[in-house]
Amino acid sequence: MIKIMMLSAAISLAATPLVAKEEAEVMHWWTSGGESAAIKVLADAYEAEGGSWKDSAVAGGSNARSAAINRMIGGSPTTAALFNTSQQYHEMIAEGMLNNLDSIAISNDWDEILPKPTLDAIKVNGHYYAAPVNIHMPTWFWYSKKAFNDSGIATEPQTIDELFAALDKLKASGYIPLALGGQKWQENLLFMAVLSNVGGKQLYLDVLKKRDAKTLNSPEFHKVVDTFLKLKPYVDSGSPGRNWNDTTSLVINDKAGIQVMGDWAKGEFTQAKKRPNRDYGCFAGLGDDSLYIVGGDVFVFPKTEDKQQILAQEKLVETMLKPLTQIRFNRLKGSIPVRTDIDVSSMGRCAQLGSRILRDESRQVPDGSMLMESYRYGSVKDAITEVWNSRDMSSKKAVKILSQALQG
Amino acid sequence: MNVIAIQMHFKRNLLAYIAALPMALTVFVAYMGTMFWSVRLSFSSSRMLPKNDFVGFVQYERLFNTSRWISSLENLLLIAFLFLVICFVLGFLLSIFIDQKIKAESFFRTVFLFPYAMSFIVTGLVWQWIFNPQLGVQKTVQALGWDSFQFDWIVNPDMVLYTVVIAAVWQGAGLVMALLLAGLRGIDEDLWKATKIDGIPAWRVYISIILPMLRPMIITTVVLLSISIIKMYDVVVAMTGGGPGVASEVPAKFIMDNLFERANIGIATAASTVMLTTILCLIAPFIYSNYIKKQGR
To answer: Residues A210-224: pLDDT tens digits?
Structure first.
């Protein structure tokens, strides 16, 4: 009897592929608690549409990306692979290794609904090569309400001078004024925050995109570098090597005043049961016209001739960009929806603030990784960390080191 | 040797050849093959994807114009010198100490060798916590009431390399001890009796007689330690992440960062070719004196 049951089960199993469930193997690096909950939203949405999701998670962004590239070179690509909204995948486009998504992009009006920096990163030579799923803004200012109150800081700083005044007050009342984890990428975030807030849009773009000698020798860029170096005395001695979340804990536990960190830091506050506007505050930049650095994640779709796979790829894109999926996914990921045409009133306060700023095109700037090749951005990060950590670094010498990396 | 003799020899050893074949293939295809491919790629313009063109020494030029690579090499030299000397001296002293027919010898042997059984990641993490000014030694001593006590080497760009050396020595000294102890045990008792009759002080015997007799052991030790220095990666990643700044960067970390994070295959393979050449130059004299010259005699 049991044998017969097993046999019939086997037959029915063998028969299922005929029903044509588009199986999509998706490679990504979202393995931590909040991240895996977020990707599960995408997986569930895809399965609800009748597809079948095969999860290939690889811990660590660069590991996952190399694994995806190796699968492509080896001739057995995954259906989709996660990358950052950047130039990381532009070399693959040039080699013709990715399928383009033109039909979906055009029928869904991507030119209209996506912010320009994101659009620029995925649209190469008039074709769309990646499906963006979210927007991360890497340089939010997070602060402890208690530390601000104790130090007599009534309002969020609106200018760089007010920021320094606030840092001085925090220092005077015994707080760590600026919480910074001394790892390369976090020091880079701090520099980018200074560049965008002190330099403004034109300088930001000129420094990171044009990289010409005139811009890099200008007094404006000197001022940016100078301001960056001036922040150093406000950082505590335990900073070098500290993880970003340990650093956020300093703000959560009211030991430090301000941290500059991406919107993903919100998850830490939420987990610690802290409430926005009561226990902690967030602002995206200094003043009402501060810039919004647009980063984020995209899925790319390796070239394949397999009809079934192409259908799966198209279905993936469609599902990921549905308004409801976007809201649910981004609420867990800490980012904001990549579409500017959907209602975000159900999201958190900081996310709503971010979405509002994002709708103003004049305040959008692309993340550094979208403006230069990964290898160049890597040496820029090396230069920033060198400048930040050297003793007696003059702004003149710092400008020289940074210029070398930017132009090299 | 005539043809028949060769055939006889081959027949007799046929099984041995067959048994060795898989390993030989692995070595030639997997190890040597990939090695040559890396060297080949270092002369191409590859970035994210391997390319098949030939651009000469461009990648090497760029490599040696990168200040992070230069400071990595300088750091490695300092680490190598200190690590070799301290590890060797400490390991030798430990082995002499254990060789004194002490009580509970196996206990001490295990204790000293134990760090070697731990991975470099664990070693790095443990020492990171010990050195961390807000968790480790500094905090403990300050909590004991000595408020002005400062021990912040790991966050100090001028001192951070020494913390890496300390962690590495802690791990490696046990291995030196074990190897040299094996050598010491092989030394004839009569030698000690003879030197005693001649009235030679013990330290003199160790330096002038025992050490030269331990030559093969010492060579093994030096080769093993050198290899672990050149591939030093995990301990740095776990302890300092190369920081503060670039103060504790090492070549292996430079290679890994460029290969994966920066998608810059060309410069990564150029850097690894430089490292490979360095290793070959270092161990060639040892190989020559130990294997090739002996056969020639």
So the answer is: 999 999 999 999 999
Task: Say if A391 is an interface residue toward chain B (CB within 8 Å).
Answer: yes
What residue ranges of chain B are covered by domains with CATH 1.10.3720.10? Answer: 42-296
Residue B203 — φ and ψ, nearest 5°?
-60, -35
Domain B42-296 has CATH 3.60.21.10: no
In sequence order, the β-bridge partners of residue A300 are A81, A130
| CB B61 within 8 Å of CB B69 | no
Per-residue tokens: A303: 């070239």
Residue A195 corresponds to which tokens in the numbers above?
């560049």
DSSP 8-state assignment for residue A240: B
Domain A140-293+365-407 adopts which CATH fold?
D-Maltodextrin-Binding Protein; domain 2 (3.40.190)
Judge: B240–A240 Cβ closer than 8 Å, yes or no. Answer: yes
CB within 8 Å: A375 and B262: yes
Nearest-5° angle of CA B155, CA B160, CA B164? 125
**∠ at Cα A101 (A97, A105), nearest 5°?**
155
Measured N-to-C along each axis, helices B105-117 and B67-98 cross at an angle, to the nearest 10 degrees, of 170
Torsion of CA A226, A230, A231, A233, to 10 degrees: 150
B33 has a chain A CB within 8 A of its CB = no
pLDDT confidence tier of residue A13, bands split at 50, 70 and 90: very low
Residues of chain B contacting residue A390, judged by C-beta atoms under 8 Å apart: 157, 245
State mean pLDDT over B262-280.
Answer: 91
